[in-house]
């Protein structure tokens, strides 16, 4: 997160606090539902669980326990998808006949102060210090991995699906200073 362009990339299925799948029967979506309703991680054996989309070989290491604790379900999903990502797996993939719902830690951002509000003892941390005059960037990338024809190396390509920037007045002065520094270094 240090440097001129601080970056943090994380696999979508293991980054989300809550994730579930809705199998669509027709082209209508549930977009009219109340977006403020609290999402809840489904049990790993539920059809709406991301665990159900994993290859059978992966789920052998993640038994479908009767554990009713939601935190345990989240931990299982994150661990399974982290393992898949680190192994370079291309499975599972998203299906256009399903609707995917994710909830992140956006409730930790206090936009009026532009801080992260962690539970005690950590407390609040300014995003201004972390972002170095850059906006808070939210984006989704598609990572395509291809086996190269020469050797066993894997080539990766990141394709931006969507993105948006969140600016705050607290980072504006730093952004101006960065632009001036860039212009001065280009002139010399």
Describe the protein.
It is a single chain. With 188 residues, the protein is an alpha+beta fold. It has helices spanning 12-15, 56-59, 70-87, 127-131, 169-187; strands at 18-23, 98-103, 109-110, 115-117, 124-126, 136-147, 154-166. Strands 3-4-5 form a 3-stranded antiparallel β-sheet. The protein has a two-stranded antiparallel ribbon with strand order 1-2. A two-stranded antiparallel sheet has the order 6-7. Strand 6 (136-147) and strand 7 form a beta hairpin.
Query: Kindly, what is the distance between the CA atoms of the first and last residues, rounded to a whole number of angstroms?
Result: 28 Å
Q: Approximately what portion of the residues adopt beta-strand conformation? A: 15-25%
Helix and strand run: HEHHEEEEHEEH
Number of H/I helices: 5
Q: What oligomeric state best describes the polypeptide chains here?
A: single chain
Q: Tell the overall outline.
A: globular
What is the strand and helix layout of this fold?
Layout: H1 12-15, E1 18-23, H2 56-59, H3 70-87, E2 98-103, E3 109-110, E4 115-117, E5 124-126, H4 127-131, E6 136-147, E7 154-166, H5 169-187
Antiparallel strand pairs: 1-2, 3-4, 4-5, 6-7
């Amino acid at each position: 997160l240090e440097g001129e362009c601080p970056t943090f990339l994380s696999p979508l299925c293991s980054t989300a606090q809550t994730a579930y799948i809705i199998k669509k029967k027709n082209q209508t979506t549930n977009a009219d539902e109340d977006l403020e309703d609290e999402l809840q991680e489904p049990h790993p054996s539920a059809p709406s669980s991301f665990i159900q989309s994993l290859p059978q070989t992966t789920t052998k290491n993640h038994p479908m326990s009767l554990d009713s604790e939601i935190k345990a379900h989240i931990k299982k999903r994150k661990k399974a998808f982290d393992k898949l990502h680190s192994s370079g797996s291309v499975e599972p993939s998203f299906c256009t006949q399903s609707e995917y719902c994710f909830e992140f830690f956006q409730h930790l951002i206090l936009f009026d102060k532009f801080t992260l509000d962690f539970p005690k003892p950590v407390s609040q941390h300014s995003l201004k210090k972390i972002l170095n005059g850059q906006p808070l960037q939210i984006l989704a990338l598609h990572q395509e991995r291809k086996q190269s024809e020469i050797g066993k190396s894997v080539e990766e390509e990141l394709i931006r699906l969507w993105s948006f920037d969140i600016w705050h007045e607290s980072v504006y002065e730093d952004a101006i200073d960065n632009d001036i520094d860039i212009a001065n270094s280009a002139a010399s």
